[in-house]
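Data deposition worksheet. Section B asks for the primary sequence of the deposited chain exactly as it was used as input, without tags or linkers unless they were present during the calculation. Section C holds the resulting structure in C-alpha cell form. Section D is free text for depositor observations; keep each observation to a single sentence. Incomplete worksheets are returned to the depositor.
Section A, Depositor: J.P.
Section B:
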Amino acid sequence: MGIEARCWLLLEKSEETRISKGIDGYRDRTGESYSYDSLVPNYKNIRSGDLVIIRKENSIIGYGEVGIITQGDQIKVHRRCPDCNSTDIRPRKTKSPKWKCGKCAFEFPEPRETSDNVRAYEAAIESFVYFENPPNVRDVKSCASSDAGTHSQLSILKLEVQKLQPIMEGVELPTAWKRAGGRSSGQGIGLSYAERRAVELHAMNAAADLY
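Section C:
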C-alpha cells in the first residue's frame, strides 16, 4: 500500500505587489506549477499525490494535486541591508538614497549581495479547480496541523484534511482528498500519484486492446 497523501496550503506572491525586494520571487504558474527551493521550510515534505490549496496574496484561489516534481541545483542571490544584513529591503522611486531597510530603517545606495547554493523544485499541479465561493485565508490556515496555523508565515503550510471538511462542504473533491480524509474506499486507495497513473495507463491500454 502506498503512503497516504497529505495536504498543503501553498502561498504565491505576485512580483508586482512584493514590497521587499531582497529576494527574487518564484516563477509560479497558478494552477499549473509551484516553485520553491531548499531554503523554504517543508520543502522536503511535499511529494507527488499530495493535495494542495493555492493561496495568492490574501485570497484562496483553488485546489489540486501535486503531479511530477522536477528539481535541480541553483544559485540564489540575496540582496541585503549593509547595516543589519536583513533581506527586507525596499527600493524607493523618488527619494535618495534609493534603498531603505524595512527592519532597521537604514538608507543606502546599493544593497550588499550574497549567494547560496540551493536545490530548486517545481511541482506540477494536476486536476486544478478554481473555487467558485472560496473560503477565506484565516479559515483555511486554522486547519493547519500546528497550533500556530492562523499566525504562520510559512509559504508551505501543512493542513489537516479532516479539519478542512466543513470548509470544503459542497465542493466535489477529487478521490485523493476523500482518501486523505479517511472517508472513502475503493480502487486506487492508498496509491501514490505515480502508482495511480500507472493503473490508469494500464486500464487505457487494456480498453484499447478490447475495442
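Section D:
The chain is about 15% helix and 35% strand.
The longest strand covers residues 59-80.
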